[in-house]
Amino acid sequence: MVNDHPIAQRHIAAEMQHFPGDQFESSWHQAARALIIRELLLQQARRLALDTTPQADVQGGIETEEDALIRALIEREVPPCEAPPEQVRRHYDDHPERFMTPLLQEAEHILIAARRDQADAFAAARAKADQLHAQLLQAPERFAELARSFSDCASGAEGGRLGQLGPGETTPPFEAALQRLAPGDISTPVETAYGFHLIRLLRRGEPRRLPFEAVSSVIADRLTEQAHRRAIARYIAQLIAQADIQGFTPEPSPPPIS
After folding, report:
1. Domain ranges of the chain
2. Does the reported pTM lie above 0.70?
3. Which of 7, 48, 211, 214 is the one with CA 20 to 30 A from 249?
4. Where is the PpiC domain (predicted)?
């Protein structure tokens, strides 16, 4: 019961689909809490006689009348307050690691395709990669020529050029080998699931901190959203404290609704 309004067990059971988990009791508790919060918000919106029109939601559909009431209530009772400039600047200064460009490395490679489940072909591919590596040690300027002639990667047509690579864009062995190279260096054959690679690092762009002006609006939006969610949570806690709820004890300070 929420202020003399019953919440049926079947409605809680239906709501549980939004709170999957291994523990039935935990899912039931979360579903019941969500329905209590929703009922409190609807009761407050009706108490204030809010007049609203359903709008399009983020999926492109039209929100229900109840969702429209809750939205109107939050807009009236808990309007967002824009983060002050000094808070935005302090967040930027306190968390420099969050505003760095990724490590970008420009590379080229020659791939000799191979599969471990084909022993003879695998051994031949390894030998071919070793042979090409020896040639490149003697004449590194032939990298593009050898890539066009021998690489089993489509990049061979471009002389093996892969362009700029960011973290996670290649396989872990490839990325680890690339990290160990200095610009201009050519790796020994590197085995991956695709075969053997000869990798040359062309240039490395080290991470740098983005200027404040480039990220200030993003920081402001994030801080404003976080503050708004906390304010909504406090408002919900206030409604819970003032309500007559029977058969269930929700947390005094529920997490922010999404």
Report:
1. 9-80+223-242, 104-205
2. no
3. 48
4. 102-203
